Amino acid sequence: MVKIRKNSFGFCGGAYGDEGKGRVVDKFVSDYARKGPVVVYRDNGGANAGHTVEFDTGERIALHQLPSGVFVKNTTVVLGKGMVLHPGDLIEEIKQTKKISGGKLRAKILIDEMAVLSLDTHRAYEAVLKEWQEGGKGATGRGIAPAYADVLLRHPLRMRDLAVFDEKKIKEHYRLYQSLIKGLGRELAEVLVPVLGSDEKVPVGKVRKFVESLSRQRRILLSCIKDVFFFLKEKWLDKKVAFVFEKAQAVGLDPRYGVYPDVTASDCTFGGIFSSTEGIINPEEIEIRAGVIKATYMSSVGTRKLPTVMEEGLANKIREDAHEYGATTKRPRGIVYLDLPALRFFASAGKINSLVLTHMDIVYPKTPIKVCVDYKVGSKSMPYRPDQEFLNKVTPKYQELPTWDKEQISKAQKPADLPKEAKSFLKFISQEMGLSILMITNGPKREQGFFH
Ligand code: IMP
What we know:
Adenylosuccinate Synthetase, Chain A, domain 3, Adenylosuccinate Synthetase, subunit A, domain 2, four-stranded mixed sheet, 32% helix, globular, binds inosinic acid
């Protein structure tokens, strides 16, 4: 029997990403930090994520590598072993965060010395590889898969290598990628890669420039790079400390549970917390493991063909009204009807035990909300399978639910204020998914959201 650790909460994307997790985590951490210390832990992904947080001042920031609790006092954010980190982008993100926080960081940042480096070399390799293979075409270009591949190939560079500045190892790394890229017909130094804070891509440059910029970055990040094992162990046992786990991406992007080739390289389920914390934290002990999903539709970036194709006029309207463009890549997102068979599968694979429904305000007059409740192959009901060939064969069975008033829901501040149609919709989703609803959001502002 697993013993639940009180005061612990996790949030992961419950569909194909971009569900609006960042602001939910930010709100949650802000509420808990008023009561006592909070540790926010991130265990997967890197600069491929884009968690948008909007402030009361109207300012917006897309966080990529820093967890969303970074704007909150009384908080320590931990970038875990399971992450792949780009030091240059991270420094820029810290700079932007400081600026928005009035010049000084409010949270303390700890970087696990065992976190893996994802560098311009990886970005360059990914860019060149895209010219050779179909599979990687949709990648965000942030060098995520090559950095994780380094781990499996047993030659990763870790934060610790940056901290002690193992120049020999760094140069060997550069030369390896130089050879790989030469083998594909290009020169590493000349390959253009994206960097945070600039709209223009920049060339990787020669080995000297590469080493020098890492050396500069080391000086800036050094005080944050730590062995976090004992810190985590101690805080996990101290029930006065609240723990918030912010997963990146979503279960539908997990390499085992997503639809190829539109998958990332990290463990997008709550399961990944176990390996990232080296077994200190069993995800099943986390009291609330919420899957964040959009309430009235789903979005998807990439080439995967999802069965619940939405009528084009409505999809276009939603894309504009809900700013459905990638936070990292700016790509327009595909919009489809809510797909409960897929969401049930992701909840089960992801170890999700409750739901957060975002975008409750994306509704239109006289437009019922169409929800896929089952798949049919012939006359047979079928569950979701993460396999494009299988998904091509299924016919969605839909149920239509009454819409609600956009203005009324946008003003709601507690469950009782919700329009009656929204209340029955929430009940329906909860019953169909077999999960309780923890929280909803009803507009883009920080205060537009509450516990259910
Ligand atoms: P990678 O993570 O850059 O390797 O990209 C692999 C796939 O995951 C691509 O289809 C990306 O668009 C998708 N992806 C990665 N991160 C996110 C995210 O935070 N939201 C949505 N899609 C993502």
